[in-house]
Amino acid sequence: MQQSIARNVVAGLSVAGLVLPEGIAYAGIAGLPPGRALAAGIAGGLAYLVVGRSRYAIVSPTSSSAAILAAALIGLNANAADRGMMATALTLIAGVIFLGLAAFRVGGLSDFISRPVLRGFTFGLAITIIIKQLPNIAGVRVDGGSILSVLDGLGAQFGRWHWPSILIGVGALCALLLLRRAPRIPAALLVILAGIALGQAMDLSAWGVAEAGPVALAFSDLRLPDDFSTWARLTQLAAPIALILFAESWGTIRGLALAHGDSVNPNRELAGLGLANSLSALAHGMPVGAGFSAGNANASAGATGRMAALTASLALLALALFATPLIAHIPEPVLAAVVIGALTHALSPAPLLWLFHLQRDQWVAVTATLGVLALGVLNGMLAAIALSIVELLYRLSHPSFSELGRVGDGHDFVDRQRHPDTSALPGIIIVRPNAPLIFANAESVLRAMADRARQRKPGTLILSLEESDDLDSTAVEALGEFATALRTINCRLILARAHDRVRGILRASGQDELASTGTYSVADAADLALKEN
């Protein structure tokens, strides 16, 4: 027991060493004071522990939420005085959205962001954030929201690059990558401490190396917008923040749960994220989620329970209360190196290449990546989600169908094109749509089947509905018209593998005769057809 507690405490301290510099850097990405990241990590992390159940999730500011928040704030054109107020309102709305979704038990909403979209989004987001950290490494200021403008500004200022900053940033990044080989060592914390020590020993500020600056928790009165139009606009911008936060968080939570044999409930996690973001807003924080890097670092550091996350949040609180003077002296190139180091895992093209190997969804992932790079984080994500839904609808509306043949003299029937050794039954065609029959495809696929029947003129056509556990009204009507079309060529229609709900909706529509032909297997339908023929 004591050994388990010790392991969780050590893991929590290691994670705090990663979350602190990452959070400060993410606040910078969003254009917010670093203290907001500390407040978010403390309030959000502790709030999640009240409701959430993941043993390894670390709820804190994440790279994607910071990037989307930055895009939203840019879209609002808020001045410096109102920027913090808008960030608070967006975080609060995201929390309310999470709580509302949890109340209506719609955790499955995250499935609308497919894994290829998330992989492409993550890849593009990693490239975007890394490029936007390069000016901090080079020690120059570049204005512009897109990565092209950042790269253009960086190239235009080549003559003003600050080489001491570059040396420190590159050195810090190399140290992080080397220390990562020992996962239980708090690499980010050690690099941060080394940066602070180097800054104090050599007075880096005198050399022109920028520092993080004052870091303090904000205890001022809570300010929120006071007009409906602003809240309406903020709600539109907060919805994508909540969507991508849950997709990222649920992917992390579910992945860690599967890897360690745990069970998690998406609706419960929605509630945990809702409470975390709501309290983060009240504490003058920023949007929070279960980030991939922090969660995996927690598991790798030896955590066995939620005490590690509790330790990490309390350690952040102690640092915020007692170590802010030291935090203020973190060199900016070191912070940039920590962010880049945390995102290097997302730069691997392996997940995208795997999709090309499968020949499935590869262009959805590529489009998600290009969308983020070309359109920005927010618009790129929305474009990728829209593309994945369009592709789904396209596939459903253009299904193929297979003609089935008998395997030997047995009861198995398989696709004749893929298994040419199967045999057809005399006077019978057996066909199977390779997608559920729905309004988008029923007429087209049944029309193609009717055309084949007109060419072959069988006595019986057996339609296997194993892919369709239910039918909508369009599919029901199209099925009746299909049966009528077959009767004009003296071909009888028999349904095989008809689910009970399919039979029920056919009877409700007045197609009792067709429903009564339904069998529970293709073999039964074939035997029935052979007897009648």
Biggest sheet features: 5 strands, mixed
Give me the number of helical elements: 22
Mean of all residue-level pLDDT scores? 85
Structural class: mainly alpha
Question: What are the secondary-structure elements, in order, as H or E?
Answer: HHEHHHHHHHHEHHHHHHHEEEHEHEHHH
The total number of structural domains is 2
Q: Indicate the radius of gyration in whole angstroms.
A: 29 Å
Strands, count: 7
Alpha-carbon distance between the termini?
74 Å
Estimate the helix proportion, in percent: 55-70%
Strand fraction: 5-15%
Transmembrane segments: 35-51, 58-78, 84-104, 116-134, 161-179, 186-210, 230-247, 307-328, 334-356, 363-390
Protein name: STAS domain-containing protein
Membrane topology: Multi-pass membrane protein
Pfam families: STAS, Sulfate_transp
Quick structural gist:
The protein has 533 residues and is mainly α.
